[in-house]
From TrEMBL:
Keyword Transcription attached: no
Species whose genome carries this gene: Pteropus vampyrus (Large flying fox)
Lineage: Eukaryota, Metazoa, Chordata, Craniata, Vertebrata
Entries under InterPro entries matching the protein: Spc25, Spc25_C
Gene name as annotated: SPC25
Record region (Disordered): 1-21
Name of the protein this chain belongs to: Kinetochore protein SPC25
């Protein structure tokens, strides 16, 4: 913009060197306008300069804030990654523990079944043992009864032995195989000490069984059958002695 003193160059001048009043007013207004424009321009430049400084300050502040935020975000992301890793590790550990627990449950179930089977086997075994005990008790009672019967029979035999030994010259000896040997004397008048003998024992059926007579008696089997039926042992001995005495 031109200075005020140069705005009149090239313009026609009026006579006597004086300008009209209207033209003066225009120049004054233009001068005021020029001043206003200069003031506005100066203020605008100052404002733009201040705004630029503020923008620079805001930019620097933004950079600092962005850097701090980025650092915090990076730390946060790392922390979250660590937490995720820990969660995955915990999850894997839980899976492993659950697998171990399931294996132990399976083993426990198997052991429970085995214990149940063993318990049933023990119950069966206990029942078998009880049956064996009862059977043993019955057999023991049977043996005891048979033993008592045998003892009673031996007592009777001993009485008969004593009687026949005194009256008939009978001697009874126990020999091999739980056999009893009956020896008669005083049968042959010419030879009173000559022995006449036979053997006797009880078989598995607890019946009398006669054998090994000397001299040999053909009727010994008949006498054996009779004594088994009658249980009269005294008559049996009398018949045997009589058979010996009638031999030639």
């Amino acid at each position: 913009m031109l200075p005020a003193n140069q705005k009149t160059n090239g313009r026609p001048k009026s006579g006597g060197g004086r300008r009209p009043l209207s033209y003066k007013m225009v120049e004054d207004e233009l001068a005021l306008l020029d001043k206003s424009i200069n003031e506005f321009w100066n203020k605008f430049k100052s404002s733009v300069s201040d705004t630029s400084c503020q923008m620079m300050a805001l930019r620097d502040s933004y950079k600092d804030i962005n850097k701090a935020f980025t650092e915090k975000l990076s730390v946060k992301l790392k922390e979250e990654e660590r937490m995720v890793q820990m969660f995955l590790e915990y999850q894997n550990e839980i899976c492993r523990q659950n697998k171990l627990i399931q294996e132990k449950k399976d083993k426990l179930l198997k052991l429970t079944v085995e214990v149940k089977d063993k318990k049933q086997e023990l119950e069966v075994l206990a029942a078998n043992i009880q049956d064996l005990k009862e059977e043993y008790a019955r057999k023991k009672e049977t043996i005891s009864t048979a033993k008592k019967a045998s003892e009673e029979r031996l007592k009777r035999l001993q009485k008969s032995v004593d009687l026949y030994k005194e009256r008939l010259g009978l001697e009874i000896r126990k020999i091999y195989g739980d056999k009893l040997q009956f020896i008669f004397t005083n049968i042959d008048p010419k030879h009173p000490d000559s022995p006449f003998m036979f053997c006797l024992h009880l078989n598995e059926a607890r019946d009398y069984e006669v054998s090994d007579s000397a001299p040999q008696l053909e009727c010994l089997a008949e006498f054996q059958e009779n004594v088994r039926k009658t249980k009269n042992f005294s008559a049996f001995l009398a018949n045997v002695r009589k058979a010996f005495s009638t031999m030639d």
